[in-house]
Amino acid sequence: MARWRAAVHYVYSGDGPRAAALSVRNVVMKGDGYPSLPDKVRGLNLPNTITLGRILLVPLIVWAIASSQMTVAFVIFLIAGLSDAIDGFLAKRFDMTTELGALLDPIADKALLVSIYVALGMADAIPRWLVILVVSRDLMIVGAMIVSWLLENPMPVKPLMVSKWNTVAQVAYAALVLAALGFGFRAQPYDAILMGCVTVLTLSSIALYLMEWVRHLATTEEV
């Protein structure tokens, strides 16, 4: 019976209520030649199914924004937010947390939020420099993590409080813009305030994560 070891890691930078990492070990090949994953990874329970549904909402909300169906986009955004709260509650309340869920949940959150910002930027609903800033921040953090892995010095996942506030600001700003466009009301001056918060928090998050990354590499090199 052949045995092989695989490790799958997803790093969530902290843009949301929680950060996560998935590690799958000791995948055993069964007699029929198909891999048998651990039960914690294999089980697709109700919270994980809801999370998958949230991922499937991504192309729908992008289509709605691109088609100027902002009311539809806002409703989809609300449904996605409710699904995030529901799957988190079910997983914790009924002890249904799984490693698969720890992987899927941050992917769903990040995919939805980044897609909304990119779509709104392409529709000229928000400044494109803000879209570039938000997306670049995520790419830089993921890139730093990949470099750490390549140097065989992986950086532990440590979500910062500023990143949690950054996600709150990003969600609030996206919701306000979609609601204002969908229901035709003036969002000033609140949109400018939230945009300023997103900008400051995103830049602060980049700076703090960069400092943590440099400190981590310097500390391990000294050891």
Keywords summarizing the entry:
disordered N terminus; three-stranded antiparallel beta sheet; mainly alpha; 223 residues; single chain; 3% strand; Four Helix Bundle (Hemerythrin (Met), subunit A); 68% helix
- Strand tally is 3
**Domain module tally:** 1
Segments where pLDDT lies below 50 for 5+ residues? 1-39
* Proportion of helical residues: 55-70%
Structural class: mainly alpha
Radius of gyration (Å): 20 Å
CATH architecture annotation: Up-down Bundle
- Overall 3D shape: globular
The CATH superfamily appears as CDP-alcohol phosphotransferase transmembrane (TM) domain
Main β-sheet: number of strands, strand sense, barrel status? 3 strands, antiparallel
Query: Could you state the oligomeric state of the chains shown?
Result: single chain
Q: Tally the helices: what do you get?
A: 7
| Residue fraction in strands | under 5%
> Class, according to the CATH hierarchy?
Mainly Alpha
CATH topology tier name: Four Helix Bundle (Hemerythrin (Met), subunit A)
N-to-C span: 40 Å
Strand order of the largest sheet: 1-2-3
Query: H/E element string?
Result: EEEHHHHHHH
Average predicted local confidence, pLDDT: 82
